[in-house]
Design a protein that fits this description.
Length: about 160
């Protein structure tokens, strides 16, 4: 993996189980690793510059060299809820790898592009940039840090 590589394509969904089932049955993409992102494991969670205690469940699977992520918001307010209200289910963000996210974030800030959602889960940092006005979706920067074992897999 090299700095700046596209590493993930992520979709916001209302029904995580149904979305995983769709990908397994139609595309043969499996297995899906499932995690719940919630405090205290989800640390430093921020949405639009304010601390947040929103929770969500994700499912991750590899599709060749790119990871697919499905995200279902559970509680609180986040960009995921905003997206569902504005657009419905669909492509939310693409993620690029940067081992030093802070350095790259400073470069974006100098260009007037701010972080609108962020957090840390184990060693994995994530930062969503306010790029929807330019690209129609958000760009995420992440360090691809290590994460604990998933809660479960689908299919089991």
């Amino acid at each position: 993996m090299q700095e700046g590589d596209l590493i993930q394509v992520a979709y916001v969904v209302r029904d995580l189980e149904g979305a995983m089932k769709f990908y397994v049955e139609t595309m043969g993409i499996k297995p899906w690793a499932i995690y719940t992102f919630a405090p205290p494991v989800l640390e430093r969670s921020m949405v639009r510059g304010k601390p947040s205690n929103h929770t969500y469940r994700i499912a991750l699977a590899q599709a060749g060299p790119v990871q697919l992520e499905l995200i279902q918001p559970l509680t609180g307010r986040s960009t995921y809820d905003e997206f569902l209200e504005k657009k419905g289910e669909g492509l939310h963000h693409v993620k690029f790898y940067y081992p030093d996210c802070q350095k790259k974030l400073e470069e974006f800030k100098a260009k007037g592009i701010e972080v609108i959602q962020s957090g840390k889960f184990d060693e994995d940092e994530h930062y969503y940039l306010d790029t929807e006005k330019f690209y129609g979706i958000l760009i995420e920067l992440g360090n691809n840090g290590s994460m604990r074992q998933p809660e479960r897999f689908f299919p089991a």
